[in-house]
Amino acid sequence: MKLKVYRYSSQSRTTISAIHINGEFECFGLEDRYRKEKVRGETRIPKGTYKIGLRTVGGHHAKYSAKFPSIHKGMLQVLDVPNFEYILIHIGNGEKDTMGCLLVGLEANNNKLYKGQITSSTSAYTSLYKKVIKAIDEGEEVTIQYIDL
Question: Does the global pTM surpass 0.85?
């Protein structure tokens, strides 16, 4: 399975993207802004292709295990990102929710007049999560490619 994150609006505080799975639009994404120098919890990861694995420890895992008991098998984690760790795909609406992670939502603002926001995050997350976890369960390699437009 191939996820592609097309970053199309990078502004002073946030980056908005369109996320595709195997060539089809799935949802919008929100990350921190681009920075030349990494700032912990405030910098998006570099463009490139990374594997996705499951993180089965930590606060997010415990919270999502309780919130989604019928589907949760671990947090979707972007692996082997140079100088970054614990990059997750999860629910959230704005920059205070991301800490360098990729948030997902069904709607996004234009990120020009106001800082970036996404909405309907839980719906987007459960849809994306079910597809990715199915691929992982079937032994498929899952990758995510971040593309700066």
Answer: yes
